[in-house]
Request: fold
Amino acid sequence: MNKYNLNNSFKAVVIGGSAGSFQGMVKILSQLPKGFPLPIIMCLHRLKHVRNGFVEALSIKSVVQVTEPHDKENIKKGGVYLAPANYHMSVELGHYFALSTEEMVNNSRPAIDITLSTCGFVYKEKLIGILLSGANRDGAQGMRAIHEKGGLTIVQEPTECMIDTMPKAALAATKIDHVLRVDQIVEFFKELDKQYR
Amino acid sequence: MQDIDIADLKRISELIHQKYNYDFRNYAMSSFKRRVLRIMELKKLTVDTLLKKLTDTPVFINEFLDELTVNVTEMFRDPSFWRVMREEIIPAIMLNHKQFKIWHAGCSSGEEVLTMCIMLKEMGILQDVTLIATDLDVNILERAKTATYPIKNMELNEKNYIRFQGSASSLKDYYREENGNAIFNRELFANVSFRKHDLVLGEIFNKFDLVLCRNVMIYFNQSLQNEVLKKFHESLFKYGYLAIGSKESLIWCDYANRFIVVNNEEKIYKKIKD
Ligand SMILES: C[S@@+](CC[C@H](N)C(=O)[O-])C[C@H]1O[C@@H](n2cnc3c(N)ncnc32)[C@H](O)[C@@H]1O
Reply:
């Protein structure tokens, strides 16, 4: 069975989230199949001037180590990356990260739109974009960019979200391939993992 | 929002290079692209009209550079960095030199230099230090010289200062409020000279005991970072210090082995080899 009609052509997963996404993110990371083969690139809104603690909190239950990349750090298969506080995080064509302190976008730095759309530009149809719970519209344009480049788009089921503004904004902005609960996203990752075994 | 492809971005950076002698050809592509798109949107230009404007209107270049560069900065950015400066780095420099020189490369609107001056003043040594603050962007340098910031920025600056644990009860001790601005005491800048300098094409112009270049090289690609690090190496006295942004790294640069890491968390390095 292959419920989500997946294959092994994907090269990366990018995930955005804001208010109410932390628990879901922890759940996804804690149930990630061991040795999951794709890089997971996360941009989550966070307190701007608290540099430490967030990675640790995400990593505690996670089966993988979450890291905040340095500027120009190469993206590795199976790496799990989190946009650092107070920096926008882009992905460049050579498959490495670039950080920047540009003005806030959608009142946010890191802005989910920036991470999502640069991933879309680089990975095109080989990208899976996921948007979780959140209280603003950041991420909607990024999801649209991913869809326009041929990538697969998923949002968290709005009725399950603590705050559904973000997934709803994405649903209004572009075609979303799957609307899933967190436990279904967990299942999705397991199925995706199987395609690479 | 319009899009722009890489070939057009290259046409723009080639034109600027040939006509105005600024070299953005090795800037990181993703942010360079966003900056150019932002200018096109702000000025209601297309790629063609932008190229034409850059060709026909030489006075446009300063405004263009001001918008192209990312000038976002804050006082006491990363308070823990400034605590390490105060408690370890500056005292280490002072062990050997009563008077010393600091270079702020890519100083933007001056918050970082002002931070340094306030810290040195609180340490009682401001009069012993010569500071040079440089940037490529002449418009932002003019703003930096005024030591004037919108009052709305002060909330964040003040928060950082509290976490830095400065010796004054508030940054208010250093500025007066006027027309929605915080105007800092100009005496803090008595030993600072602001100069235009381009890290990419500019010459080495002095030797320093401490160089700060934070959140500037993130706009460069790796090969340019590599070149610029060589310039910092040459601009430092042996055993001088280099500080970069908290999320930058030098490990892949050719000259990395001429430095040792003094503080990995705060990204402070020391030159140990010529
Ligand atoms: C984000 S600001 C950094 C301000 C401050 N150092 C900080 O960390 O908050 C980056 C600055 O680097 C300057 N810059 C960019 N390219 C440069 C170059 N080639 N030479 C000198 N300055 C440059 C920009 O004009 C901008 O003011």
User: Anything to note?
Assistant: Chain B touches chain A through 28 residues (CB under 8 Å). The two ends of chain B are 49 Å apart (CA to CA). The beta strands of chain B are 100-105, 129-135, 148-150, 175-178, 181-184, 192-196, 208-213, 236-244, 259-263, 268-271.
